[in-house]
Design goal:
The complex is a heterodimer of chains A (515) and B (485).
Chain A: H1 8-16, H2 22-40, E1 43-46, H3 48-63, E2 75-78, H4 105-112, E3 117-121, H5 155-162, E4 168-173, H6 179-185, E5 188-191, E6 211-216, H7 219-229, E7 259-263, H8 273-288, E8 292-296, H9 304-319, H10 338-349, H11 352-365, H12 371-394, E9 397-401, H13 417-421, H14 428-433, E10 437-444, E11 450-457, H15 462-474
Parallel strand pairs in A: 2-3, 2-4, 7-8, 7-9
Antiparallel strand pairs in A: 1-3, 4-6, 5-6, 5-10, 9-11, 10-11
Helix pairs in contact in A: 2-3, 5-6, 7-15, 9-11, 9-12
Chain B: E1 3-4, E2 7-18, H1 57-69, E3 73-74, E4 77-78, E5 81-84, E6 94-97, E7 104-113, E8 116-129, E9 133-136, E10 147-150, E11 157-163, H2 170-187, E12 199-209, E13 219-224, H3 227-246, E14 254-259, E15 264-267, E16 280-281, E17 288-289, H4 292-301, H5 306-317, H6 321-328, H7 331-341, H8 347-365, H9 376-388, H10 393-406, H11 410-416, H12 425-438, H13 440-447, H14 452-464, H15 471-484
Classes of the chains: A alpha/beta (515), B alpha+beta (485).
Bound molecules: zinc ion.
Chain lengths: 515, 485
């Protein structure tokens, strides 16, 4: 197996044994990027020089015995997290040349343990979308089938990890933006409990819903990333004052006695039969392994989508108002006065979906409509949260499909916003409830497309989710499969795909011995 | 002037005061006034993408203290909201403010107007952040080719104090502002300098027919840069509204700006009125929970406020109400008075100097009592010299001015300027003899029964002695001499 294909915990073993160096891993990853990113288009910006410099720091840290589990492991960041001195665009024309003067808290945390940053990944503009087709620059492709979308909005990060262009990645999840692309790209993706991971430096879409989380090749790596990013940050007032546990302690291949709820409302019409079947089979597996499966009801689920599309745009309309051309970012030319400058800048700088949501949100907050829309949505949000509270009185966790369908074709839904919104039907409720949820691969479709199962849990009970996901992973084979990108084009058009890295280990990385 | 023509005047005021915290409301930047533009800024107060606010606890304490000083109820549970509008000096395009759950509400304040005590309700006191400062290339933003933005002020904590529409005249409004300023000053939460913009006032005014119970349509006045301007703007606006109503017109609800140079209010219609601020709860901050124990702690920290100080001055120092109120209405002045009065056996004399010469000199220098070189001990020492007869009351004025200008001790000023009172009988007699010789007509007049002539002669003697002759001695010797002539 090539270095760029391995999991972080396997690479850590090899680094610790001094069999390989971080600089070699970073080289391997950049060679891989050169070979396939012309096809996949996961990255907005590559930061090779900085990555190599940090890899050298990492190698020194291993020499000095000061290495953490993710020291020296190549990381990709969704391009909506601020990186000091490195362009942070939100895949928007309005921030095309924006270079932040500061680092997001999550970036600082990885910087402190010498984790090399490979680059910034593509997203739907301002994280609004489910396919990366709303990026102002280009659409990322699904590594499993490059005619399909990788999901979104964190499609670039999901595709980067799936296509071995990064070992681990961070995304942000406002209504499913980590879990849906994780399911589409066949990787593990988790949205932690709201308030567990600092949002400082994450460019806001909807402040009360946004949460940063990991993309990884397996559940063990998810726990390792969580160990770095979770925990209180004094720079984020909504970050909880709570000590994060060692998440690797939850990597237990055992679900005996766990009460797992299956909410009836998540198995509605419109789910592709293959998806439904794959999830049902996984639930059967959990039952066979000793979990108590209960069918439950979460009656307000059907209102989640509508509620989300009032609250998220309302907050977005305010969060995105600062892009006015005065201080940074795009500024329209030839405006005779400041009001015209505001209008032209925003008309030219934002894409259609962003404008649609700003308008929706502005309307929902307008005087005379506030009570009927925003306030009512907040009340329904409380009801949805109560659905979760009630479910967790009898269940330790809930499972559902992550998405109703397998990855759809590029262009298939881009003209129909409502059809696109339905892609997040099952992921949105956990954002509204502020509870944790993850997606773990559970099967491949007949066409060879990934299918994910969503596991949802109580606030701050990521441990149980990791335990269930780990058990699924250890008892299925899907996570060992990789997309075939043999015919992929390199970043420089027409360049031959280079053979990447040295092979040190041909066996698959096992999670069992890394606890 | 509670009435104008057939109408009663109704006024409510909204006052913004910058809090005296060292750092801004949501970041660690300095609040220092007068720094180079854009030097007290950071990603947070510049509203860069991705930043989050962190509440300055001290600002909450200050706002609660102000609320307590204004007899408000302090909310157990309060929250911040976003007020959304576009303006170049507002980096996030929203101001973090408080909408429906302010920190303090339902307060009241007592104001003295023309010797009568009036109670004015305080609707609410809430906490919010300052905007930046636009410097336009011309007078107004619309007339300018370009504008520059200074974000040093952005994010400085403000309290907004909203009164009930309880004032019935522009004078009452001015008295309210003066007393509010005093209370904030006493509480130590704001330096209340209108000239530096740390205190600002908007006024709402409407008229209603005498005996009416419903309020009339109001206008909102902005851009008044002094208390005097507030009063003048209100007087003008009352007159304008009365004229409109008298001629059968209707008042349009609008914002009007005060033009100081022309002394008129001008409609700003179409600019402010179109704003829908789309308030909603600030999702980046958690609600503010003010524990009862904190409220009690802050209440205990409150200093003695002007009203109780006034009462104490009447009780302790025997000052008349007018004097006590006037001195208590400025904390620095009251502190000065109190320190001096404690060391004197005649507090009323101290009060006279403080209210008279001292206040006049402070005004001329445009400083407050705490910045004066003349300290309470100077006054105490000078009063002692008067008592001992070393200087006359008249000479003391000169000594006082010199002490004020230089900060020198009274005895030194008296010595350096040769101002010691002449109480030597021989010397006074010599001067009197000379004056009597030079003014035979006055002597004749006095002998003819014209009592006034002696006043003239005393004046001449004082003048000849450059004011230094002991007036009592002059009188005594002069009368003796005249009687003997
Ligand atoms: Zn700042």
């Amino acid at each position: 197996m090539n270095l760029h294909e391995m999991t972080a915990h396997r690479l850590h073993e090899l680094l610790k044994a001094r069999e390989i160096s971080s600089t070699e891993i970073v080289e391997a990853v950049f060679n891989r990027i050169e070979a396939v990113d012309g096809t996949v288009k996961a990255y907005m910006t590559l930061t090779r020089e900085q990555a190599m410099a940090i890899a050298r720091e990492a190698d020194a840290a291993f020499k000095n015995g000061q290495a953490a589990p993710l020291t020296g492991i190549p990381l990709a960041l969704k391009d909506n997290m601020c990186t000091s001195g490195i362009k942070t665009t939100c895949s928007s024309k309005i921030l095309e040349n924006f270079v932040p003067p500061y680092n997001a808290t999550v970036v600082e945390r990885f910087r402190a343990i010498h984790t090399p940053l490979v680059g910034k990944t593509n997203l739907d503009e301002f994280a609004m979308g489910s396919s990366t087709e709303n990026s102002a620059f280009f659409t990322t492709r699904n590594p499993w089938d490059t005619t399909r979308v990788p999901g979104g909005s964190s499609g670039g990060s999901a595709a980067a990890v799936a296509a071995d262009e990064a070992v681990i990645a961070l995304g942000s999840d406002t209504g499913g933006s980590i879990r849906q692309p994780a399911a589409f790209c066949g990787v593990v993706g988790m949205k932690p409990t709201y308030g567990y991971v600092s949002r400082y430096g994450l460019i806001a879409f909807a402040s009360s819903l946004d949460q940063i989380g990991p993309f990884t090749r397996d559940v063990t790596d998810t726990a390792l990333v969580m160990n770095v990013i979770a925990g209180h940050d004094p720079l984020d007032s909504t970050s909880v004052r709570r000590e994060a546990p060692d998440f690797t302690k939850s990597l237990v291949n055992d679900v005996k006695g766990l009460r797992i709820g299956v909410p009836r409302e998540y198995f509605v019409e419109g789910i592709q039969p293959e998806v439904k079947e794959a999830v049902a089979k996984t639930i059967d597996l959990l039952a066979r392994l000793g979990a108590e499966i209960q069918e439950i009801s979460m009656p307000h689920t059907e209102y989640a989508l509508a509620t989300y599309y009032l609250i998220a745009p309302a907050e977005a309309s305010s969060n995105l108002a600062r892009y006015d051309g005065v201080r940074y970012g795009y500024r329209a030319k030839e405006a005779p006065d400041v009001i015209t400058m505001f209008k032209k800048t925003r008309s030219e700088g934002f894409g259609a979906e962003v404008k649609r949501r700003i308008m929706l949100g502005t309307y929902a907050l307008s005087s005379g409509y506030y009570d009927a829309y925003y306030l009512k949505a907040q009340k329904v949000r409380t009801l949805i949260k109560q659905d979760f509270d009630r479910a967790f009185e009898t269940c330790d966790a809930l499972v559902s499909p992550t998405t109703p369908t397998v990855p759809f074709k590029i262009g298939e839904k881009s003209g129909d916003p409502l059809a696109m919104y339905l892609s997040d039907l099952f992921t949105i409720p956990a954002n509204l409830a502020a509870t944790p949820a993850l997606s773990v691969p559970c099967a491949l479709s007949k066409e060879g497309l990934p299918i994910g199962i969503q596991v949802m849990g109580k606030a701050f009970d990521e441990g149980t989710l990791l335990r269930i996901a780990y058990t699924i992973e250890q008892n299925t084979d899907v996570h060992n499969q990789k997309p075939n990108l043999a015919g992929a084009a390199g970043r420089d058009a027409g360049g031959p795909a280079k053979d990447a890295g040295r092979a040190h280990d041909t066996g698959r990385a096992s999670g069992k011995d890394v606890r | 002037m509670a009435y104008i023509g057939d109408y009663e005047i109704v006024i409510g005021l909204e006052v913004h005061a910058e809090l005296l915290t060292e750092s801004k409301l949501f970041c660690g930047c300095s609040t220092e006034f007068g720094a180079e533009p854009n030097t007290h800024v950071c990603p947070v107060c510049l509203g860069l993408p991705g930043v989050l606010p962190v509440l300055n606890e001290k600002a909450v304490r200050y706002a609660v203290k102000a609320g307590l000083a204004l007899n408000c109820q302090i909310a157990d549970f309060s929250k911040f909201d976003r007020k959304n509008y576009f303006y170049p000096d507002l980096p996030k395009a929203y101001q973090i403010s408080q909408y429906d759950l302010p920190l303090c509400r339902k307060g009241k304040m007592r104001v003295m107007v023309n010797g009568e005590v009036k109670e004015i309700g305080i609707t609410r006191v809430h906490l919010e952040e300052e905007a930046g400062k636009s410097v336009h290339s011309a007078e107004t933003i619309l007339g300018s080719d370009y504008s520059k933005e200074d974000y040093n002020r952005t994010g400085i904590p403000l309290i907004e104090i909203v009164s009930e529409p309880d004032m019935r005249s522009p004078e009452e409004a001015k008295a309210y502002l003066e007393r509010l300023k005093t209370i904030l000053q006493y509480t130590g939460v704001s330096d209340v300098k209108m000239e530096e913009g740390s205190l600002r006032c908007d006024a709402n005014i409407s008229l209603r027919p005498k005996e009416a119970t419903k309020f009339g349509t109001r206008t909102e006045l902005k851009n008044m840069n002094s208390f005097r301007a507030v009063q003048k703007a209100l007087e003008y606006e009352a007159g304008r509204q009365e004229e409109v109503l008298r001629q059968g017109g209707v008042i349009v609800q609008e914002t009007r700006t005060w033009d100081e140079s022309r002394g008129v209010t001008i409609s700003m219609r179409g600019k402010e009125e179109a704003n829908d601020y789309r308030y909603f709860p600030e999702p980046d901050l958690v609600p503010v929970v003010v524990e009862r124990s904190l409220v009690e702690e802050l209440r205990a920290e409150l200093p003695e406020l002007p009203n109780s100080r006034m009462e104490r001055y009447m009780r302790e120092f025997g000052l008349p109400e007018f004097d006590a109120d006037l001195i208590a209405s400025s904390k620095p002045l009251a502190d000065f008075f109190e320190e001096a009065a404690k060391q004197c056996r005649d507090p009323k004399a101290v009060a006279n100097w403080v209210m008279g010469d001292f206040t006049r000199l402070l005004k001329a220098e445009e400083i407050e009592a705490d910045r004066s070189k003349l300290r309470p001990r100077h006054l105490v020492e000078m009063l002692a010299l008067i008592d001992k007869g070393t200087i006359s009351g008249k000479i003391a004025k000169t000594v006082f001015e010199e002490m004020f200008a230089t900060g020198k001790d009274a005895a030194i000023v008296v010595k350096e300027k040769g101002l010691v009172q002449i109480s030597d009988e021989g010397e006074v007699t010599r001067i009197i003899d000379r004056i009597l010789a030079e003014n035979p007509q006055s002597v004749t007049d006095f002998k003819a029964g014209k009592e006034k002539a002696i006043t003239f002669l005393v004046g001449q003697v004082m003048r000849a002695s450059k004011g230094k002759a002991n007036p009592a001695l002059v009188n005594e010797i002069l009368r003796k001499k005249l009687a003997g002539l």
